Structure formats: structure tokens, C-alpha cells
Amino acid sequence: MEFETPTFSRPRRRRIILLVALLVVVFAVTGFLIGYFVMKAGQDTVKCQTDDGSDNTSKPTPTPSNKEKYHKMFQEEIKAKNIEDNLKYITSEPHMAGSKRQHDLAIFLGEKWRTYRFDVVEMPEYKVPLSLPQEDKPNKVEVIINGTIEQTILGKLEVKAEPSATKKFNYFPYFAYSPNGTVEGELVYINTGSKEDIKLLMNRTGVSLENKIVIARGMGASIRLAASLGAIGALTFPDPHSSGPSPNDTYPNTPWTSGDAVFEKTSGPKRG
Fold first, then answer.
1. Where is region (Disordered) located (predicted)?
2. pTM score > 0.70 for this model?
3. Euclidean distance between CA atoms 131 and 139, whole angstroms
4. CA dist 188 to 12, 107, 128, 194, 271, Å?
5. DSSP 3-state assignment of 51?
6. Higher pLDDT residue, 68 or 19?
7. N or C: at which end does the chain have fewer Cβ atoms within 10 angstroms?
8. What's the pLDDT score for residue 231?
9. What is the gyration radius of the CA atoms in the chain, in angstroms?
10. Nearest-5° angle of CA 147, CA 153, CA 155?
């Protein structure tokens, strides 16, 4: 049997080649789009590792907002017990900036984040001018009456993580970034030490802060303003009205701070 091979004219052959090329492009684009949307849908499945070492793969229910979706997923992964355990460990010892304990906590957090499978966890070193207390020469406040030292308050405390703890740590309260020195002068109580309180005190009583040591309750005292008006020193203390109205209103009896708590304050700039 003989087969007859069809012959095509040059224009018709060109049309067939163009049609085949067009079909190849269409199939290629279709395959790309299918792969893209399949991969995009797969990205909604999140795999993470929990504190107990187990993998948790979840696919959140789609919501109109990605923000709401991931916020919901974040809330579902939070465990109150883990927060409690982490805070208990971090606050079990004083951890002043620049101390060995602070460095140990940085390593602890870095290891935690690696177990959570963060892509990159780094701990770069910075040289920062820090104001630290002199542990061999703690701050001291002396109450002098008629030339006689009636009372001495040493800026060295023995603190515990909680009342039931047995281990004690030395803690040295100080006024960060204040100049070192010894001053002596009369005390002037300036209430909360706000600009309004200082202005009211001076306008109503005519009291001058020149060469005086001011004492204020709470942490909102404007020490810079007092210094600009001539004050040579400042003492601040936690305000019982906001930190525990009575001796029993302290931790662990209430959520207030502990009875020996010291609120740190700085005389340095807030930013910079």
C-alpha cells in the first residue's frame, strides 16, 4: 500500500507553526498560575514548635483581614503557664543592665527563640555609656539635727525574688546618670515634684529651692526643674497612694509592689 504524504503551501505551514507555538505558551502560563496559587494556599499552613518541643501545625480559618487572622492564630498559641514560668525565671534575680545576669538572660532568650524556629537570632555587642552604682561605696542618706547624725539610711538592700524564697541578693539603689558627690542642705518637700506642684509651692509660700535637697513622692518629679531652681539634691520614694495605701497592701497579699521595692529613676534624657 502506498501512502501519499500531504503537501502544504508555505503560508499554511507558517500558520500551523504559529498555532502550535501559541498552544505551548498557553499551557505554560496555565501551569505557572496553577502552581502559584497552590503554593500561595500552602503558605497559610504554619508550622511552629512549642515550649514542650512538639510541632504544632495549624491552618487558621480565613478571615477578611490578614491582621485578624494572624492575631487569632497568635492568641491560640499563647499559654499563660509559659508566660508565668518565663517571668518567674527572669525576675528570680536582679538583672541590672550590663551585669552578668543580664548577659545570661540574653543567652536564655536567644536559645528560646531558636527553639521557636526564628530565621535569624543574633546578639550583637554594643558599647553603651551606662551609669552604675558603686557597690563598694553605696549611697547614703544621713539625717542631721543640730549637728548630730540622728539616722543613717544605707543604699544597700537584701532582696528576695518572693517572700518564700531563701536566697538573698544585694541590691544598690541609685539615681542613674546623676553626678557623683556629697551634698548637705535643708529638706524641702515638693509633693509629687511636678511643674505645677513646684510652681504652686513657690508662689504660695515663697520657699526657695536654692541649696536645698528636695524630697518628692512618686516617680513623676521634675528633677531637672528643681535643679534649675537651685536644688542641690533630690530624694524620691514610691507613693503609697498609688503603690499600696497601707502596709498590708503589698505583694504577695495584693498585686501592689513589695514592701521593699525601689523605683529606679534617671536624671538623664529620656531619648538619645
1. 48-68, 239-272
2. no
3. 14
4. 106, 46, 35, 14, 29
5. coil
6. 68
7. N
8. 94
9. 35
10. 135
Helix%, strand%, coil% for the chain, nearest 5: 35, 15, 50
Give me the mean pLDDT over the 174-178 stretch: 80
How distant is the alpha carbon of residue 191 from its chain centre? 30
Strand order in the sheet with 233-237: 187-189, 213-217, 233-237
CA 250 – CA 210 distance, rounded (Å): 37
How do residues 135-169 score in pLDDT, each as one tens digit? 888 989 999 999 899 999 998 888 888 778 888 88
In residues, how long is the chain?
272
pLDDT value for 37: 47
Q: How far apart are CA 137 and CA 182, in angstroms?
A: 12
Phi, psi of 75 (to 5 degrees): -65, -35
Most confident option among 36-40, 84-88, 128-132, 210-214: 210-214
C-alpha cell recorded at residue 16: 500551523
| H-run or E-run covering 57 | strand 55-58
Collect all residues with Cβ–Cβ distance below 8 Å to 106 and sequence separation of at least 6: 123
Backbone angles phi, psi at 266, to 5 degrees: -120, 145
Instruction: Please write down the long-range contacts of 246-251, taking CB distance under 8 Å and 24 or more positions apart.
Output: 251/162, 251/163
pLDDT tier for residue 188 given thresholds of 50, 70 and 90: very high
Q: 137, 156 in Cβ contact below 8 A?
A: no
- If DSSP codes are grouped into helix, strand and coil, which group holds residue 27? helix
Q: What pLDDT does 30 receive?
A: 54
Helix or strand or coil: residue 7?
Answer: coil
Q: Which residues are within 8 A (CB) of 149 and not within 5 positions of it... i.e. 6 or more apart?
A: 142, 143
